[in-house]
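Practice problem: GDSL-type esterase/lipase family protein
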Amino acid sequence: MKFMLSILLTLLISGSSCRLSKPVQKPAAWSPVLKHADAKPGSLGDPNLKFIGRWDFSDRNRYTSYWGGAYVRVRFSGRMISMRIGHPTNFFARIDDGPWISYKNAKDTVTFRDIPSHGGWHTLTVAQGKDYDYLFDFRGFILPTHARTTKPVVSKIVVEYIGDSITSGYTDDQANVSDYGWVAAEILGAEHTQIAYPGINLIDGYGRVKGNGMESQYFKSRSLKYPDAAAWDFRNYTADIVLINLGTNDNNNKVPDSAFRHSYISLIKGVRANYPKARIIALQTFLGIKTKPTLEAVAEINHAGDLDVYFLETSGWIAPKTSDYNDTAHPSVAGQEKVGRILAEKLKAYL
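Answer key — C-alpha cells:
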C-alpha cells in the first residue's frame, strides 16, 4: 500500500500521465427502446431523436430525465421547430454551432426562433438546466408537415462526470452547458453525462440533511431530490471514461479522511462493476481538498489489481481569489472554460 502511494505521489509531483493503447469501448445506441414505425418527425417515437444521459422511456407520452445536463438532439429540415414539455423547467437550447440560449421556467410549447435563414438541415440540442429537481419532462418536437428529421451526429465516445455543484456549474448562469465537463467533452467531440448535484457529499449520512451521498445516489435513476429513486439500469449506455470530482462538501461537513477514503474506494468499485472496461479518473479537487485520501483510495484500488484507475492532478489550473472563481469554491464561467480546455488536453491521453 505504501509503495503504491509513493508511486502515485511521485506522479503527482512530476505531472506524469499514462497513455492507454486498448480500444475505447462503444456505448449502446442513444435512442429509446420503444420506436413507432409510423411516428411523425420529431415525435417521441421518432428514432432520429437521440437522448444523452439518464432518461426514462417507460411512458409513451413523455420521456423524462432527472439529472442536470441530460440532453436530446435532433437534425431537422426547414426553419421552424417547437418543443412540448410538461413540468416547468429551466433548459438551454442550441441551433447548429450557435450560442446557447437560456429558457427559464418554461412549460407547455416552446418555439425556437433563432434558426439560420438558409434552408436545408439544422441540428437542435436541448439540455436540462439549472434547478434542484432537474426534471426534464420532454413530450416531443413539433415540425411543419413538410419537415423531416434524420439522424444527427452522435459520438461513440462517452465521458461521464460524477460530482457536485462545481461539476454542474451551479453558480454560473448557464450551469451545465458552461461547466468544465461539458466544455472538455465538446472540445473532444465526445458525448457526456453529468451525474452531479449541488451540495452532495461523496459519503452518506453527513451534513445538515444527513442524506445520501454520491456513493449511493450515483447508482440511482434520479438525482438527490429523489433519494428513494429506483436503481439506474447501466445497460442503457456505456461510459468509456468516468471522472470523479468529489470531496469539497465532505470537507465542509467534516467527513474524516479515513471514512472518505473508504467511500471513495466503494464508489470506484461500484463504477467498475457497471463499466468493466472504462478508464476511471479521480480528479483532484481544484482547491486541493481531500487530496491525500483520494490518492490513497486510488493506490489501494491499483494495489488490488485494477490499473485502469488514475489520479489526475489539477494544481494550478485555476487560481483562487481571482476572476477564475465566483466565490471561495465555485469556478466562474471563465474558470470553467480554463479547466475544460486543460482537461480536454489531458483526456487525449486516455482516448
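Discussion: Residues 1-29 have pLDDT under 50 and may be disordered. Students who identified this feature from the C-alpha cells alone can consider the problem solved.
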